[in-house]
Design brief:
single chain; 311 residues; five-stranded mixed beta sheet; 20% strand; globular; disordered N terminus
């Protein structure tokens, strides 16, 4: 038994010696192979590191160009700027600084966007935008519909439409599309009748029947509410009604219903100069303004005077 064990051990030693001898005879070749392999591994690691650094740099660059920055918007005070102030909080969390400038007219907000001084504006509906482009030669486009404001008839010296008397005065906005909208609302309530086909381009010259011989006083939109103490009734845009302290639900004597064609036609939009509608900042702005959070803010704040627009 001992001899067999000893024989086995000796055989193992000889085998190990023989293996070691073969290794010694190829040391230089193996070392060269090992060095080449190490070099290749190192080159691959360097290449991987360089690629990773390049991808990281590209990622940072993409982030810097597509996320964050300043968005400048020209807006009417109510409700547009108020809605934007709410959106500003959400955009700030996304790295965007929303700068809001309030304008009290309907001309300058378009001019400053056309000139590039501002990125966008938020105050107008599509018919007004299209009419402005046609008249002024501007190149403004709709980047997203946000809300709809019902046009309403509000009391002046008279508190109910049934009190309308011959010769009474009713004040309306004087810009093309808003005047037509006001006249259509007066027609819907039996005060006047317009010529067939007058539609969204109607003016006082298109009044076919005026049984009470009412006088239509045409004023700049921002001036209409101010003459309420001097006229029987005023017909107001939703934002100017809000600024004047009117509630559509409680104060209007008649208004456009939410399922009317006017709701679809007169949606208020984010307007930008053509070519900028896909700007990352504009897309971020529109997305936030159409979010559930902003819809809730609108519904909770404006008592039906402002309605979120659903595409």
């Amino acid at each position: 038994m001992k001899k067999r064990v000893l024989t086995t051990i000796l055989a193992g030693v000889l085998a190990v010696s023989a293996f070691a001898g073969c290794g010694s005879s190829n040391t230089a070749g193996n070392a060269a192979v090992d060095n080449n392999a190490a070099a290749e591994t190192n080159d691959a690691a360097v290449a991987d590191t360089t690629a990773a650094e390049s991808e990281a740099a590209e990622s940072v660059a993409d982030t810097q160009t597509t996320e964050g920055g300043t968005i400048t918007v020209a807006a009417s005070a109510t409700p547009h700027a108020e809605i934007l102030e709410e959106a500003k909080k959400i955009l700030a969390d996304q790295g965007w600084d929303l700068e809001i400038t309030i304008f009290d007219d309907y001309v300058l907000p378009n001019e400053v966007v056309e000139s590039g001084e501002f990125d966008a504006n938020y105050f107008q509906h599509i018919p007004y935008l299209e009419n402005f482009n046609a008249e002024k030669g501007t190149h403004l486009v709709n980047a997203g519909g946000i809300h709809y404001e019902p046009f309403g008839i509000y009391p002046g010296t008279k508190k109910d439409l049934s009190e309308l008397a011959d010769g009474d005065t009713i004040a309306v906005p004087n810009d093309t599309t808003n005047e037509a909208r006001a006249l259509l609302l007066l027609q819907d309530n039996g005060i006047i009748t317009l010529k067939d086909g007058a539609g969204l381009e109607a003016t006082v010259n298109d009044i076919a029947e005026n049984p009470h011989n009412v006088k239509i006083e045409e004023l700049a939109a921002e001036q209409v509410a101010r003459v309420a103490p001097e006229v029987a009734f005023v017909v107001l845009n939703g934002n100017y009604a809000l600024q004047a302290g009117y509630s559509v639900a409680q104060d209007s004597l008649a208004y456009e219903t939410s399922d009317s064609e006017a709701a679809k036609t007169y949606v208020n939009v984010i307007a930008v100069k053509e070519g900028n509608e896909n700007n990352p900042g504009i897309q971020a702005l529109v997305k936030v303004l159409k979010s559930d959070d902003i819809k809730k803010f609108i519904n909770d704040t404006y008592d039906g005077a402002v309605i979120p627009f659903e595409d």
